[in-house]
Design goal:
36 strands, 5-stranded mixed beta sheet, 416 residues, mainly beta, 42% strand
Length: 416
């Protein structure tokens, strides 16, 4: 249970396993954050992809990281493959989209800029030795973090590069590794590091605006809503800090233990309906109030939950949280109560996030497949025998599928 402590800090006491429900915790029925609008760009980069260029600027699409792209026209197979970027380097994270390009950070810390229509490499640049995050796109700039800036160097780096040509705008060495996908908001870049430091850097030059020190490693991306940043750490805490100065608003802890371990939060939280949703290595999916950190519910699964949830108010179903588990199941949970709307065998362990494109939920498994199911019922309608971690991003017409080592582009409306 939760006990209020001085200074706006909460503790979740005990080592109880199983489901928890606190139905009196506030739940708002407002819609989730709208996705970024398309940006009008001139055709100055030599390709024939005319018109507006759709932007997918952050991991999870929006700053609330809900991983939900509403679509007026549903996507349905058959999906026609249009190009492939092959390779031998592991791909854990989805790319981001900006202007007419796609930006992909491979696990060897090589950043690629590709023409979205053809897959042609515009430029590539080595940022370090090891990376495990998605970049961010803003102000015609790519922002990226790396785990190791050189071979044998257990320290990271954060960089800003010109989106057009890959020129380094600025680079800052970090005293710790980072696999936290950056968030960019109003001229500031936010991310976390393994020594528990959360940074706010000025986007134009990398100047440190403020730092916040968590009690454990911050490996996930940060999520933002209503002037607060939300994240979990490897000490089993979730917290909210102020965007403007990094001051703690509230902190909630969990003892975990359902898998014989303390609970670690690797999952990037999704923020919607006045709630924070994320998974934990103790096997639970959690929902907390964004106002004060009160636990709304906990849903037990049978395995680690590294997965980042997708959250949306699905027509005919209602506000729903979609998340995967190492127990080889995909869950659709009532966003208010945590009640299981449906759960389906996923065909393997889910480590990466779930992405909602219109009324389809996409996920990948460590058994090397990417799957699309209907959001309302979980009925499988498409399977691709490539994938491992985070599955897809989309323009609303086409989808880009992340395989184990290759990136694939599909036209989802080939007959139009």
């Amino acid at each position: 249970m939760l006990l209020a402590l001085a200074g706006g800090t909460f503790a979740l006491l005990g080592s109880e396993q199983g489901d928890v429900s606190n139905p009196d915790v506030e739940f708002r029925t407002e819609t989730t954050e709208a996705p970024p609008e398309a940006e009008a760009v001139s055709d100055d980069q030599g390709d024939d992809d005319r018109g507006e260029a759709y932007s997918w600027p952050h991991y999870g699409l929006t700053k609330t990281r809900t991983s939900h792209l509403p679509l007026a026209t549903p996507l349905r197979p058959p999906f026609k493959r249009s190009w492939k970027l092959g390779g031998k380097i592991l791909l854990e994270f989805t790319p981001v989209l900006g202007s007419r390009s796609l930006y992909l950070l491979k696990n060897n810390a090589a950043l690629y800029a590709l023409v979205r229509k053809t897959g042609k490499v515009r430029w590539k640049k080595k940022l370090g030795y090891l990376a495990a995050s998605a970049p961010a796109y803003a102000y015609a700039t790519i922002f990226a973090t790396v785990l190791e800036r050189g071979k044998g160097i257990k320290e990271g780096r954060v960089m800003a590069l010109d989106a057009k040509d890959g020129r380094t705008r600025w680079s800052r060495k970090l005293p710790s590794r980072s696999e936290s996908s950056p968030l960019v908001h109003r001229g500031t870049v936010y991310f976390g590091t393994e020594d528990g430091t959360v940074y706010a850097l000025r986007a134009r030059d990398g100047f440190v605006r403020w730092r916040y020190k968590a009690k454990g490693a911050v490996k996930s991306a940060l999520s933002m809503s209503e002037g607060k940043l939300f994240f979990g750490d490897y000490a089993g805490n979730v917290q909210a800090i102020r965007v403007r100065d990094g001051k703690l608003v509230w902190r909630t802890g969990t003892s975990g233990g359902s898998l014989g371990r303390s609970g670690n939060f690797y999952s990037t939280p999704a923020i919607a309906f006045g709630r924070m949703y994320l998974g934990n290595t103790d096997g639970g999916v959690y929902s907390f109030s964004t106002s004060d950190g009160r636990l709304a519910w906990r849903k037990e699964t049978g395995g680690f939950v590294y997965s980042t949830p997708a959250v949306a108010d699905v027509r005919g179903l209602g506000p729903t949280v979609y998340i995967g588990s190492y127990d080889r199941n995909l869950y659709a949970l009532d966003a208010r109560s945590g009640r299981v709307r449906w759960s389906k065998p996923a065909g393997g362990r889910i480590s990466g996030g779930v992405v909602l494109l219109g009324d389809l939920a996409f996920y990948s498994t460590l058994e090397k497949q990417t799957v699309a199911v209907t959001a309302r019922s979980g009925r499988r309608i498409w399977r691709f025998g490539r994938g491992a971690f985070n599955p897809v991003v989309s323009t609303g017409r086409g989808i880009f599928v992340v395989g184990q080592t290759s990136l694939y582009a599909f036209d989802a409306r080939p007959d139009e």
